[in-house]
């Protein structure tokens, strides 16, 4: 008798995202390998067309999926449910202008995670109603990592989500080591620092340091 696989558990700590443009000449695969060496528990692959072809993204994702599977690290694909299916990723993260969560669920099935970026209370409530497994909360601070990003939502929206949203969430946007404590103190258990990690001289050591700071704050 076979049983359906359980949906992965969303981890606390550092949420890693690839960003080759800011990776000091290193490939997404190299960055993912170093993140894993530092003890990260989740990596999201984020690339936008036309910077890379679908063939290039598929090859990268297959390589990163092999690394993450061997290490027991969750692997999330940004924007592309089809790419997630092709590499058997653990889930998909979408934005407000991407495919709606129920449609993504139809594509990827019940056992994959779906994350949805949110920027205001109404979007957080809608994410719960739509069946998202977790939400992104941000950008908390000003960020240049993404193009066409909305204005910072500030710590007030983070407060709202921490107090009212039943879903796990990741705080994202302009978070650096110097303001990480502020974000954790407002109730975030999972945080994303993009350039602080991918642009670091020693990615693995940076992840270890940030992960330790996050877990210490959670357990305080």
β content, as a range? 15-25%
Rounded to the nearest angstrom, the distance between the terminal CA atoms is 44 Å
Strand order in the sheet with the most strands: 1-9-8-7-6-5-4-3-2
The proportion of residues forming helix, as a percent range, comes to 40-55%
Outline: globular
Main sheet properties: 9 strands, parallel
Q: What's the name of the CATH homologous superfamily?
A: Aldolase class I
In the CATH scheme, what's the topology name?
Answer: TIM Barrel
Sheet/helix structural class: alpha/beta
Provide the succession of SSEs.
EEHEHEHEHEHEHEHEHH
Determine the mean pLDDT.
94
Low-confidence stretches: none
Number of strands: 9
What number of domains?
1
Radius of gyration: 16 Å
CATH architecture: Alpha-Beta Barrel
Blueprint (SSEs and pairs):
Blueprint: E1 13-14, E2 16-17, H1 28-37, E3 42-45, H2 54-71, E4 74-78, H3 81-87, E5 91-94, H4 101-108, E6 113-118, H5 121-130, E7 134-137, H6 154-164, E8 169-172, H7 180-185, E9 190-192, H8 195-198, H9 203-219
Parallel strand pairs: 1-9, 2-3, 3-4, 4-5, 5-6, 6-7, 7-8, 8-9
Helix pairs in contact: 1-2, 2-3
List keywords for this structure.
alpha/beta, 9-stranded parallel beta sheet, 220 residues, single chain, TIM Barrel
